[in-house]
Amino acid sequence: MSAHFIDGELQSLKDAVAMALEFAQGLGVSAAEVAISKQQGLSVSSRLQEVETVEFNKDGALGISVYRDGCKGNSSTSDLSAAAIREAVKAADSIARYTSEDPASGLAEKALMATEFPDLQLYHPRHTTPDELAQLAIAAEAAALGRDKRITNSDGASVNAHNSVRVYGNSHGFLQGDCSSRYSLSCVVIGSDDNGDMQRDYDYTVARQFDEMLAADKVGISAADKTLSRLGGRKLATGNLPVLFAADVATGLLGHLVSAISGSTLYRKSSFLLDALGQPIFPEWFTIHEQPKLLGGFASANYDSEGVATRDRYIVEQGILQSYLLTSYSARKLGMQNTGHAGGIYNWTVTDSGKSFQELVRSMDKGLIVTEVMGQGVNMVTGDYSRGAAGFYVEKGEICYPVEEITIAGNLREMFRNIQAVANDRELRSSIRTGAILLDNMKIAGS
Fold first, then answer.
1. What does the alpha-carbon distance between residue 447 and residue 444 come to, in Å, rounded to a whole number?
2. Which residue has the higher pLDDT, 6 or 390?
3. Between the CA atoms of 115, 117, 118 and 119, what dihedral angle is there, to the nearest 10 degrees?
4. Which residues contact 94 (CB under 8 A, 6 or more apart)?
5. What class does CATH assign to 5-228?
């Protein structure tokens, strides 16, 4: 795969966006914005140490929104010729003429546009070949299958190398683009024991730079060890226990916070954290720091998808909710200030309690480590939380046996307030950088 295709296309994509904006201006619209993204990647998967698929992709499209007297029209095209772009602009304008006026629609304020664009070190192109990626996938599977005779099958390994470019421009005169790279390797295996129990688990590595991925054999061994640890799973008796969410599951727990404080949820009045701004929702020691300019971060950006400058901020400070997550539209609906979160969040770093995951396990008298959650049992209006779970039962600080086919339940508002500790070994493969989260008490429904 050519590593530098993005470099040559960035300027041509900027030219296409500028052309679309010029066409829109010629139609006399009130405002316009244009975004285009393009990806190119190579993916190779193997199963039982044989190459199964090799896939090359290169795709992208230009999307345009025009605003005419408070009315909005959208259209898109994957054809970037001048004629196709002109037709897309005309189509968006035609739609705008028939849509209803919405006072909250429109571009973000010009004063909020980003003006500084430091290199965030997101783009590390590298030439890769199908053979090279296949060798990594096969090596991961080989390490997993050779780990223990109880690893009896493989669901495969996959390696991906992707580069992408995005360009955004609007009629404020904003026109910027940036490139990024992403490399990943995953492995999934199946294990069984003498009692006929079968379990499946996986592990993965992801990096901006190819050479910073974890070694393939380590990924395979980790996938095998996680699978083996689940063999012989039991149900727990129904009751109440402290629960320790493993770091990669804890990111999902805090993902519910993202949903609850997002503008679209708030203006629809469908959040359990409605009117919680400035209120304590976590323990006093708990802080979430957002860092959009983190070098090489998986969620780093100089500007959001509306061109609004991103900035460091505390989402939660000393337990108190300091910021909602607002786009230009949701900010207007709520009568508040745009926070530059069109497109998502930016590298949340959660404070820790100074202890490792293992130390938190040793601190538990009786408890449950949750390593997997299933189902969609989360009510964002009330905060009620009920999900299937699997993990490990702990007694006197030691893992006793794996647990499966149970349900954990609580209320997110209470769960957030009753966080006891956060481990200092953070999950760094996510936009939410947190360690394992210990809750003092949850309902467990089992046998």
1. 10
2. 390
3. 180
4. 73
5. alpha beta
Please state the rounded mean pLDDT for residues 82-87. 96
Query: In sequence order, which residues have a C-beta less than 8 Å from that of residue 414 and are 6 or more positions away?
Result: 383
Per residue in 177-220, pLDDT (tens digit) is 999 999 999 999 999 998 889 999 999 999 999 999 999 999 99
**CA distance linking residue 257 with residue 420, whole number of Å:** 17
CB 442 within 8 A of CB 243: yes
Calpha distance 144→154 (Å, rounded): 8
Confidence of residue 1 (pLDDT cuts 50, 70, 90): very low
Domain locations in the chain?
A: 5-228, 233-447
Calpha distance 243→289 (Å, rounded) = 24
Using pLDDT thresholds of 50, 70 and 90, give the confidence band for residue 376: confident
- The number of CA neighbours under 13 Å toward the Cβ of 171 is 21
Rounded to 5 degrees, what angle do the CA atoms 301, 125, 308 make?
15
User: Which residues are 41's β-sheet partners?
Assistant: 57, 162
pTM for this one?
Answer: 0.94
What contacts 218, CB < 8 A, 6 or more positions away? 143
- Do 438 and 421 meet the contact criterion of CB atoms below 8 Å apart? yes
Task: Kindly report, residue by residue over 111-132, the tens digit of the pLDDT.
Answer: 999 999 999 999 999 999 999 9
Long-range pairs for 322-327: beta carbons < 8 A, 24 or more residues apart: 322/277, 322/278, 323/261, 323/277, 324/261, 324/262, 324/263, 324/266, 324/277, 325/258, 325/261, 325/262, 325/263, 326/263, 327/108, 327/263, 327/264
Instruction: Round to whole Å and give the CA distance between 176 and 34.
Output: 11
Closest by alpha carbon to 323, among 335, 336, 332?
336
Pairwise CA distance, residues 352 & 209, whole Å: 27
